[in-house]
Design a protein that fits this description.
Layout (H helix, E strand, L loop, with lengths): L2 H20 L5 E5 L5 E5 L2 E2 L4 E2 L1 E7 L5 E7 L7 E6 L2 E2 L4 E7 L6 E5 L2 E6 L6 E5 L3 E6 L2 E8 L3 E9 L2 E2 L3 E5 L7
Parallel strand pairs: 8-17
Antiparallel strand pairs: 1-2, 2-5, 3-4, 5-6, 7-9, 9-12, 10-11, 10-15, 13-14, 15-16, 15-17
């Protein structure tokens, strides 16, 4: 196998390892060619907060020459919601999301599955938003463009930013719209 073919082989293996990393799999690969070149590589481990480490490979020939390469894989932790304050209120109420891994800007609050706008986080641990007075009408998984008032009930809240989407916590809407 010539050097050009080995380069493409390793490029393919690195891509496969990155896919395995995203899936949370730790991998190790070893290859020996007909020309006596031995190659090995290792992958990363996903610990639930994102993959950590680096993808690397080492090539050794029968003559003793070694070459090593590495590809750093940056990871960013997903946003996490730990609580809402308050946990219930009327449409129009101001709610603070407490958690971690919020970005300084472009944290999109999702209420009842709908993006209700971008929010800022000055400390990466808190975001505030208002419970909307209206949402799109949805029944049995089908949504229409009809806008309806937010009725009393329990609604999922999540945060989405450049790092991904958070867990879901529920907010309970009570009574009529809050006065302003």
């Amino acid at each position: 196998m010539n050097n050009e073919n080995q380069k493409w082989l390793w490029t393919g293996l690195v891509v496969v390892l990155i896919v395995l990393i995203v899936l949370g799999v730790t991998a190790s690969v070893k290859h020996r060619s007909d020309e006596g070149v031995e190659s090995s590589g290792t992958g990363l481990e996903n610990n639930g907060a994102g993959a950590t480490g680096a993808v690397s490979n080492t090539n050794s020939t029968q003559g003793g020459a070694n070459s090593t390469g590495a590809v750093a894989v940056p990871t960013k932790p997903l946003p996490v919601i730990s609580s809402l304050a308050p946990v219930s209120g009327r449409a129009g109420s101001l709610v603070t999301i407490n958690g971690k891994n919020f970005t300084p800007s472009n944290n999109f609050v999702e209420f009842a599955g709908y993006n209700i706008g971008a929010s800022l986080s000055n400390d990466s641990n808190h975001i505030s938003f208002k419970i909307p007075a209206t949402i799109k009408s949805c029944a049995n998984g089908t949504c229409t463009n009809n806008i309806v008032p937010v009725a009393p009930g329990s609604y999922p809240v999540a945060v989405r930013n450049a790092n991904g989407t958070s867990n879901i916590i529920y907010f309970t809407v009570i009574g009529p719209t809050a006065t302003q």
